[in-house]
Amino acid sequence: MNQRQANLDWMLKDLAESVPQTRNVVVLSADGLRMGQHGGDTDAADRLAAACSGLQSLAGAVSAELPQAGRMKLVVIEMEGGFFYLMAAGAGAYLAVLADEGVDAGLMGQRMRDLIIRLGEHITSPPRSDGQAR
Predict the structure, then answer these.
(1) 103 in a domain, yes or no?
(2) How far, in Å, CA of 64 to CA of 51, rounded?
(3) Does a structural domain hold residue 37?
(4) Residue 1: which of 37, 51, 41 has the closest Cα?
(5) Residue 61 phi, psi (nearest 5)
(6) 29 CB contacts (<8 Å, ≥6 apart)?
(7) What total of structural domains would you count in the chain?
(8) What's the domain range around 10?
């Protein structure tokens, strides 16, 4: 694990510990690659990152139907047993969180926004060309 990854994982842990009922926190690139995680195992984080890539693409297609289409900012899904949050986090990067149903939704949104501001360019993912970051 490189220094950037270690710093990112530490900040994700801070988010999880500051919001009770948080299960998994993942930072991913727009093409579904895990850039950092806290909670759960690596395979689960990779599956979540891949699923999020499809979800952010779907959200973008839906936003095209609005008069002033723009980039997806936040997707929240409530399921039996919990919540899923996906928030835009810099150019080509997203922050995803899985939480139990008792989570404070307002606090989660606030902490996710705070984390994105703190991380700044650390979670920006450059576009990929032929499978390689530019």
Answers:
(1) yes
(2) 20
(3) yes
(4) 37
(5) -65, -40
(6) 35, 49, 53, 92, 93, 94, 125, 128
(7) 1
(8) 3-125
Give Cα 25 to chain centroid, integer Å.
7
Residues 6+ apart with CB under 8 A from 31: 53, 128
CB 110 within 8 A of CB 85: no
What CATH number has the domain bearing residue 87?
3.30.450.30
pLDDT digits (tens, 9 = 90+) for 12-24: 999 999 999 999 9
How far apart are alpha carbons 108 and 30 in whole angstroms? 22
Which residue bears the tokens 């999020």?
A: 52
Which residue numbers in the chain have pLDDT < 70? 1-7, 121-134
Beta carbons of 93 and 28 less than 8 angstroms apart: yes
- Report if residue 70 sits inside a domain: yes
